[in-house]
Every structure is written in structure tokens, then in C-alpha cells.
């Protein structure tokens, strides 16, 4: 499976002006439906053996997208927003899935958010093929009904005071078994990591607030900060999954030497690099991490501040050693 190529959408008719998609996206079909952007088709043409899955949030719950033509090997997975009518005895999506058989349960690692600690959630899983009916208020009466595959994951026993996790996913990828349903849920869960990267890019790198005077400068700046945001996210995730490996997988020798000297107020770094876990802890302290017993592991915001301080410390370390 390839990663998360996306459909570039166009608004199919004026009534959809409130949908949260940019108005400058192209590929509007004169028949009133959404079609794929040429860039998507070109990407598929360049990777003919790659199965491309577009993973979208609830803003993409658009019937025109469901029925849009697409080449072989290009599919989508979309979180449902609307309780659509279906060709099923219960007539609506949520009611139809409520009567489907439960396939099993999955444990999901829910990352920490504001006022909510990280936790493990138990989700019951159901999946079934459903046929969505054309919206009755759609201006194109010739749109067909379409069969999709619904995957419903619902947290049955959330902690007190916590909203249960619920994902109603629709996909063009055939989904019949528990294993297939778990794979679709794993695809969607990757959005959390991607959203964290976007938060670093926007909140840490402040990419939206930079006044660079021209589009060309903005594009080059964004390319640079994209890599910086990736590095911070990489440090966050790698430090949690492989804490005992050498920090040189993340830092250049001069960086960890400067970090050690800054953390220990010394001019003489050791000959062997510290572990990644120790290096990340020192970087986090530069960013304001207090290392109290009840503190969660340092997150991307703290590490962003720490890397900024480390950058300055590394430059000073280099200057001082040139003087020596």
C-alpha cells in the first residue's frame, strides 16, 4: 500500500460552497460531479504498481466523491459525517451498522490531548457492505446509488467524563473480515501522526505567519520547515520507541557534544555519545521541560523549543572550539 495520496477536489455545485475545501481546486466536471485532479492521475501513472489510498476526514464525506471515476489501484477511505440513507431495512447508515454483527475488539493507543492523558481504548468493530442512495436534493438526478464498505469502531466503556471514540469509516476497498477492518482502522489512525506533524509546522514553525514577500520565497521556506517539522516529530516518536539507541541516529556529533556541554556546564564532552533517550531529555529541558514525576513524556512543542536552543548552543560551541 502506498501512503495517503489525496484526491484534489472541486466544488461540484454552488450549494456546496460551505464545504471546507479551497475554491481554487480544479477538475470540475461539467456534468456536476467531482473528478480527479490531473496531478493524481500523473502520480498513479508514475507508480502503476502502487495501490494508492486516499485517507480523508469528515469534510470529504461528499457523495460526488464516492461516485467519481478513478483509475484501477486508486481507492479512498473517508470518515462518515452524514447519516446517509442506505438500501437496508433500517434505511440509514448508523442504524444499519448497529444491526450488523460484531467482529471483535481492538486496542487503540489514544495520544494525549489537552486535558486528556494518553490512554488505551477498547473499540468494538463491525463492518458490512452498504449501498448509499443518491441524495434526494442533489441537482444531478442521474447519479447512481453506490455500494461502499462501512467500518464502524465504537468504544464501549470509555473512562468517566470522556467522550467515547467512534469512527464510522466508508471505503471503496472491499472489507469483509476482522483482519481487513483492522487494516482500514490502522490506515485512519495514522492521521494522528500526520496531524501532529501539521501542528508542528503551523504552531512551532509558524509557517502561516511568515511574511516573505513572494510565493517563491514562501515555497522555499515551507520546504525547509517541512523537514524541520519532520525532524522534531521523528525525534518525538523515535525517542519513545527506541530510547536506548545512540543519539547519533538523530544528532550530528557536534550537536550532541554541544548538548552535553550545555546540559552539564562543562567544556569537555565524553568520547561516546549518550543514548537517544538521554539526549531527548536534555533537549526537552532546554525547551522548558521540568521532569516532574507526574509529567508526561516531552511532546513536539517542548522539543521544538529545545531544538531552537540547541541550534544556538551548537553554533556557540563551534565558535568556541574554533577559537581554541
TrEMBL record:
InterPro entries: RNaseH-like_sf, Tn5_transposase, Tn5p-like, Transposase_Tn5, Transposase_Tn5-like_C. SUPFAM superfamilies: Ribonuclease H-like. PANTHER family: TRANSPOSASE, TRANSPOSASE TN5 DIMERISATION DOMAIN-CONTAINING PROTEIN. This is Tnp protein. It comes from Mycoavidus cysteinexigens.
Amino acid at each position: 500500500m502506498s501512503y495517503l495520496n489525496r484526491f484534489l477536489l472541486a466544488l461540484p455545485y454552488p450549494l456546496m460552497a460551505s464545504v471546507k475545501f479551497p475554491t481554487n481546486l480544479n477538475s470540475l466536471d461539467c456534468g456536476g460531479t467531482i473528478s480527479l485532479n490531473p496531478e493524481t492521475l500523473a502520480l498513479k501513472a508514475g507508480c502503476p504498481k502502487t495501490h494508492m489510498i486516499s485517507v480523508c476526514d469528515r469534510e470529504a464525506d461528499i457523495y460526488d466523491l464516492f461516485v467519481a471515476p478513478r483509475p484501477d489501484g486508486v481507492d479512498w477511505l473517508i470518515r462518515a459525517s452524514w447519516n446517509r440513507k442506505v438500501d437496508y431495512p433500517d434505511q440509514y447508515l448508523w442504524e444499519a451498522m448497529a444491526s450488523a454483527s460484531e467482529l471483535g475488539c481492538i486496542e487503540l493507543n489514544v495520544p494525549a490531548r489537552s486535558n486528556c492523558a494518553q490512554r488505551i481504548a477498547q473499540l468494538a468493530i463491525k463492518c458490512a457492505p452498504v449501498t448509499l442512495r443518491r441524495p434526494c436534493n442533489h441537482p444531478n438526478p442521474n447519479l447512481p446509488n453506490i455500494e461502499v464498505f462501512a467500518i464502524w469502531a465504537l468504544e464501549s466503556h470509555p473512562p468517566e467524563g470522556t467522550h467515547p471514540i467512534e469512527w464510522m469509516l466508508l471505503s471503496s476497498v472491499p472489507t469483509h473480515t476482522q483482519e481487513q477492518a483492522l487494516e482500514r482502522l490502522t490506515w485512519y489512525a495514522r492521521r494522528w501522526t500526520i496531524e501532529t506533524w501539521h501542528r508542528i509546522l503551523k504552531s512551532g514553525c509558524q509557517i502561516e505567519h511568515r511574511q516573505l514577500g513572494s510565493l517563491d520565497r514562501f515555497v522555499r521556506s515551507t520546504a525547509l520547515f517541512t523537514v524541520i517539522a519532520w525532524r522534531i516529530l521523528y525525534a518525538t516518536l523515535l525517542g519513545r520507541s527506541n530510547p536506548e539507541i545512540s543519539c547519533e541516529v538523530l544528532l550530528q556529533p557536534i550537536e550532541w557534544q554541544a548538548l552535553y556541554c550545555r546540559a552539564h556546564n562543562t567544556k569537555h564532552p565524553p568520547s561516546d555519545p549518550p543514548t537517544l533517550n538521554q539526549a531527548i531529555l536534555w533537549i526537552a529541558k532546554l525547551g522548558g521541560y521540568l521532569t516532574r514525576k507526574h509529567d508526561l513524556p516531552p511532546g513536539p512543542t517542548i522539543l521544538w523549543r529545545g531544538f531552537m536552543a540547541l541550534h544556538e548552543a551548537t553554533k556557540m560551541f563551534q565558535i568556541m572550539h574554533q577559537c581554541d
